[in-house]
Specification:
This protein has 16 helices and 11 strands. With 430 residues, the chain is an alpha+beta fold. The protein folds into 2 domains: 206 residues, Cytochrome Bc1 Complex, Chain A, domain 1; 179 residues, Cytochrome Bc1 Complex, Chain A, domain 1 (2-Layer Sandwich). Helix 4 runs parallel beside helix 9. The longest helix is centred in the middle third of the chain and has 18 residues. It is globular and about 60 Å long. The N terminus is likely disordered.
Length: 430
C-alpha cells in the first residue's frame, strides 16, 4: 500500500475516533472529589491522573519553591517505603508513576496493565496519602534544586523569563519563580512540607481522571480508593486576583551573543469566553510556527531570527499573552519595533480570509491526532476536570473553531489585547 494511502487511512481512523463522542462519564463523591471516566477496551491498560490545587500559586515570597518541592518529594518514598523500594515496586508491576507541576496544580499519574491495576492503585494511594518527606532525601533534593537554580541564573533565557514574570505580576504569586530561590529553598524544612501538604492537598479541589480498560463500576471503586483518605470539606483558599501592573521596559546586560526578548501582559484566564477566538487568532499572529505573521516579518522578510513565537497561557486567574524571540544584540531593537508594528496591525485589521482558512484547516484537520491515545485523552480530560470545563468541550472544539469569523478575531483582539499595558524584557541587548 502506498505511503500516501496509509497516511490517509490513519487520518480517517483518527478523525472518526476523535469526532465520536468520547462519552466522558462524570460524578462527584460525597467528600467533594470529582471523577471523570472514559471506558476504552482497545488495550489492556488503565491510565489514572489525580490533580490537586497545589501549584506554585500557593507559594509565598518567603517560601517560594515549596509547592514544587512538595510535589517532587511525594514520589520519593511513602508510607515508610523508601525511595528505591517504592520505585522498584512500580517497576515490578510494569506500572509507570509520574508527577506534574505548574502554576495552578500538582498532579500525579499512573499507567498500569488492567490486571495489575489494584496493586498499582494501592501504591499510588500510598504516594498521595502518606508521603515520607524524609529529612535526608529532602536535604539531598534541596542541594539539587539549589544547583539547578544557580545554573539557571547564568542563562539569559531563564533570566529573561524570571524578570518577565516579575514585570507582569509584581507581588502576585504568579510572579514568583516556581522552582524557588536559592535563599528560600535553603530554609525549607520537613515541617514546611507537611504543613503545605495538609493545607493544600486536603481541600475540595481534587479531580481524578480514569481512562482505559475497566467498567464504570470498577472506575468507581478506583475513585473511592484514591480519594477516601482525603477530607474534602476544607474549601481551597482563593487565588488572589491579578492586579493591573504598569507596563515596563526592562533591559538586563549579559555576555551572551544573542539577546532574549519577551513581550506581553496578563490577559486571559481559564474558561474565558474569548479564549478560542484569541487562540485561533494567535495561530495566525505568532502561534503557527513558520506560517505565522511574526515569523514572516521577523524571519523571512528581515532574517532577524530563526524563530519567533506568541501564545496565550490561561491560568485560574489571568495568564500571560507572551511573544518571544532570540536575535543578535545589535538587532534586538529592530526586532522589537517590528513585533510591535505587526501586533498593532493585527489588532487593527484582524486576519485575512486566506490566513483564517489556513489556520482553521490546520486546527480542525490536526485535532484528531491530539486524541490518538489513552495518554493524550488523559491529558486533555485532566485539564477539563481541573478547570471544570463542560463535558462536551472536546466534542465541540472543532465546530466552535470553524464558526469563528475574521471579524470576531479582530473584535476579541481589540477588546482584550491592550499594547499600552505590555511589558518588555530584553536580556543581552547592547
Amino acid at each position: 500500500m502506498p505511503i500516501k494511502t496509509i497516511l490517509i487511512t490513519i487520518l480517517i481512523f483518527f478523525s472518526n475516533f476523535a469526532s465520536a463522542n468520547l462519552n466522558i462519564q462524570h460524578w462527584e463523591l460525597s467528600n467533594g472529589a470529582r471523577i471523570y471516566f472514559i471506558e476504552n477496551h482497545d488495550l489492556p491498560i488503565v491510565d489514572i491522573n489525580v490533580d490537586f490545587r497545589a501549584g506554585s500559586v500557593k507559594d509565598t515570597k518567603q517560601k517560594s519553591g515549596l509547592a514544587s518541592l512538595t510535589n517532587h518529594m511525594m514520589v520519593l518514598g511513602s508510607g515508610g517505603v523508601n525511595e528505591e523500594d517504592l520505585a522498584n515496586q512500580f517497576i515490578d508491576l510494569g506500572a509507570q508513576l509520574n508527577s506534574s507541576f505548574d502554576q495552578d496544580k500538582s498532579g500525579f499519574s499512573v499507567r498500569t496493565l488492567t490486571e495489575k491495576r489494584s496493586e498499582a492503585i494501592d501504591l499510588l494511594t500510598l504516594v498521595l496519602h502518606k508521603p515520607n518527606f524524609d529529612k535526608d532525601i529532602l536535604e539531598r533534593e534541596k542541594k539539587r534544586y539549589i544547583a539547578s537554580i544557580s545554573q539557571s541564573e547564568t542563562m539569559p533565557g531563564s533570566i529573561a523569563s524570571k524578570a518577565f514574570n516579575k514585570a507582569l505580576y509584581g507581588e502576585h504569586p504568579y510572579g514568583l519563580s516556581s522552582s524557588g530561590e536559592v535563599q528560600t529553598i535553603r530554609k525549607i524544612s520537613k515541617k514546611d512540607l507537611n504543613n503545605f501538604y495538609k493545607n493544600n492537598y486536603f481541600s475540595n479541589e481534587l479531580s481524578i481522571v480514569i481512562v482505559g480498560d475497566i467498567s464504570r463500576k470498577e472506575a468507581e471503586e478506583l475513585g473511592n480508593k484514591i480519594s477516601s483518605g482525603f477530607t474534602q470539606s476544607k474549601i481551597a483558599s482563593p487565588i488572589p486576583l491579578v492586579k493591573e501592573v504598569k507596563g515596563q521596559d526592562i533591559r538586563i546586560s549579559h555576555p551572551a551573543k544573542q539577546a532574549h526578548l519577551y513581550y506581553g501582559a496578563p490577559i486571559i484566564k481559564r474558561g474565558d469566553p474569548d479564549f478560542l477566538t484569541l487562540y485561533l487568532g494567535n495561530y495566525i499572529l505568532g502561534g503557527g510556527g513558520f506560517v505565522s505573521r511574526l515569523t514572516q516579518v521577523i524571519r523571512e522578510d528581515r532574517g532577524l531570527a530563526y524563530s519567533v513565537y506568541s501564545y496565550f497561557m490561561p491560568f485560574i486567574e489571568k495568564g500571560p499573552f507572551q511573544i518571544g524571540v532570540q536575535t543578535k544584540k545589535n538587532q534586538v531593537d529592530q526586532a522589537k519595533k517590528l513585533i510591535e508594528k505587526t501586533v498593532a496591525e493585527f489588532i487593527k485589521d484582524g486576519p485575512t480570509s486566506d490566513e483564517l482558512k489556513r489556520a482553521k484547516d490546520f486546527m480542525i484537520g490536526g485535532f484528531p491526532l491530539k486524541l490518538d491515545s489513552n495518554k493524550s485523552i488523559l491529558e486533555y480530560v485532566s485539564m477539563m476536570a481541573f478547570y471544570k470545563y463542560p463535558l462536551d468541550y472536546l466534542d465541540t472544539f472543532t465546530k466552535k473553531i470553524d464558526k469563528i469569523s475574521a471579524e470576531e478575531i479582530k473584535s476579541a483582539f481589540q477588546r482584550r489585547v491592550d499594547m499600552s499595558k505590555f511589558s518588555t524584557v530584553i536580556v543581552g541587548g547592547e
